[in-house]
């Protein structure tokens, strides 16, 4: 595990988010490890966070290249609203001197500049007067003539970047086809293995959300069809222990628990064994999975509901990173939502509304008769087709079966 574990409290305390979205976690982990990266993520995916969070955590100032003054000022406002020490150096700013002094004093997390400025030798000299944490190149497709918005000034950035070879580079864009991506990486000196390409869709994951009747039996049957490694998320330490024991007994497979109450050595050993195994199942609280890179997880199961669609997406997203067919199955009960709603009463009022909205959105996904993937992707601002053919609702046509089932019950009553 890397420094990504330390990112979670910052995510919560500084940005107010419960979890990463999509592949933010992967990008942040790379940057925290000092590895240069091109992140291609859809608009609204939250690309800003992937440099702002490392900017807060890493020593020194993060220099952000952004093509438009209006964009920079938007970013500046929202960063400052989160208490991040940020400034812009543009022709529209009157506080140049203060900004320069703050930078030299190491009192800035973020410094936004336009590419014209960044490419000037005098600016390079200025930058060498204090430590740098990261170069973030926003709208990085502008560097490529293949991209849809080529800016010659972006071409000149390389001189600045190469003057600080030890500072990692994070290039960000929402739109880059294959040719543009390759060009951006070559232009900015990002290694070939530095690409994180993220639409929200994970087509190899089959989603299913089912009523829970007997979770041990339901999980046993899931595991019978999936001999590969899997993660089962349960709500409490006690349930984790109990499920791990019962599943091991029922399936004869290697099943281990993971939660914060375990002896640290046992916990680390269970995690290491899981990462190395081609068949182990780990039963865990949501604490499990942060910063773990295991590409061949064949299923993720939830016993009980997660906290939000974002949480669900992040946790299920740990399945099938290798692109092979994988399953995400949630076993829920109506009581789960009742319990979660009761817990809202204890939350302070400022957060209650947003938490309730998150819970409602999740309930929408759980209760829908529509394509699960479509609901999920729409939640993240995408415009997916109405049917994916790879979720329980698409495969089992619940609209039809539910009605016949209901009719049968009514008739036999
Ligand atoms: P992009 O630059 O990729 O288009 P932004 O960085 O502007 O996206 O972020 C889009 C929105 O998503 C912002 O309102 C931001 O606060 C929100 N956001 C970012 N990360 C998260 C997260 N982990 N959880 C919830 N909301 C997030
Ligand atoms: Mg953006």
Helix tally equals 19
The percentage helix is 40-55%
Major beta sheet, specifics?
A: 7 strands, parallel
Strand order of the largest sheet: 3-4-2-5-6-1-7
Strand fraction band? 15-25%
| Distinct ligands | adenosine-5'-diphosphate, magnesium ion
Q: Could you tell me the number of beta strands?
A: 13
Give the CA-CA distance, first to last residue: 57 Å
Mean of residue pLDDT values: 90
Report on the architecture of this protein:
The chain has 19 helices and 13 strands. The N and C termini lie far apart (57 Å). Helix 2 (24-32) packs parallel to helix 3 (47-57) and helix 11 (215-225) crosses helix 12. The protein has helices spanning 7-13, 24-32, 47-57, 69-81, 96-104, 115-118, 121-127, 152-155, 157-163, 178-188, 215-225, 237-251, 264-276, 309-316, 334-344, 349-367, 372-379, 392-396, 398-412, and strands at residues 37-40, 61-65, 86-89, 110-113, 132-137, 169-173, 195-197, 205-211, 230-233, 255-258, 281-284, 299-303, 326-332. It is an alpha/beta fold. It has a seven-stranded parallel sheet with strand order 3-4-2-5-6-1-7, sandwiched between helices. The chain binds adenosine-5'-diphosphate and magnesium ion (MG). Adenosine-5'-diphosphate (ADP) binds next to helix 3.
């Amino acid at each position: 595990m890397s420094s990504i574990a330390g990112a979670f409290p910052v995510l919560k305390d500084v940005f107010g988010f419960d979890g990463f979205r999509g592949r933010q976690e992967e990008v942040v982990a790379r940057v925290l490890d000092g590895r240069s990266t091109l992140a291609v993520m859809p608009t609204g995916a939250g690309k800003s966070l992937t440099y702002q969070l490392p900017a807060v955590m890493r020593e020194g100032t993060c220099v952000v290249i952004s093509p438009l003054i209006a964009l920079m000022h938007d970013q500046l406002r929202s960063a400052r609203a989160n208490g991040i020490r940020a400034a812009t150096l543009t022709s529209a700013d009157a506080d140049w001197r203060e900004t320069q002094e703050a930078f030299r004093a190491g009192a800035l997390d973020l410094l936004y500049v336009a590419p014209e400025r960044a490419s000037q030798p005098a600016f390079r000299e200025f930058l060498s007067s204090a430590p740098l944490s990261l170069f973030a190149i926003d709208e990085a497709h502008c560097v490529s003539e293949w991209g849809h918005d080529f800016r010659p000034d972006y071409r000149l950035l390389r001189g600045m970047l190469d003057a600080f070879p030890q500072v990692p580079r994070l290039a960000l864009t929402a739109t880059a086809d294959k040719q543009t991506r390759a060009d951006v990486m070559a232009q900015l000196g990002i290694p070939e293995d530095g690409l994180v390409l993220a639409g929200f869709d994970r087509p190899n994951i089959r989603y299913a959300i089912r009523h829970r009747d007997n979770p041990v039996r339901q999980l046993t049957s899931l595991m019978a069809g999936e001999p590969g490694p899997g993660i089962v998320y349960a709500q409490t330490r006690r349930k984790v222990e109990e499920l791990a024991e019962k599943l091991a007994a029922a399936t004869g497979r290697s099943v281990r628990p993971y939660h914060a109450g375990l002896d640290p050595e046992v916990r680390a050993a269970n995690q290491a064994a899981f990462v190395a195994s081609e068949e182990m199942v780990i039963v865990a609280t949501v604490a499990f999975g942060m910063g773990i890179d295991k590409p061949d997880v064949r299923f993720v199961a939830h016993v009980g509901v997660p906290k939000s669609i974002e949480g669900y997406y992040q946790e299920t997203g740990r399945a099938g990173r290798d692109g092979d067919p994988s399953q995400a199955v949630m076993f829920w009960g109506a009581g789960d939502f009742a319990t979660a709603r009761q817990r809202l009463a204890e939350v302070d009022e400022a957060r209650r509304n947003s938490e309730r909205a998150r819970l409602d959105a999740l309930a929408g996904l759980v209760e829908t008769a529509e394509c699960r993937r479509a609901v999920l992707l729409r939640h993240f601002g995408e415009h997916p087709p109405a049917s994916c053919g790879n979720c329980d609702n698409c495969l089992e046509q619940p609209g039809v079966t539910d009605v016949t089932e209901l009719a049968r019950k009514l008739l036999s009553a």
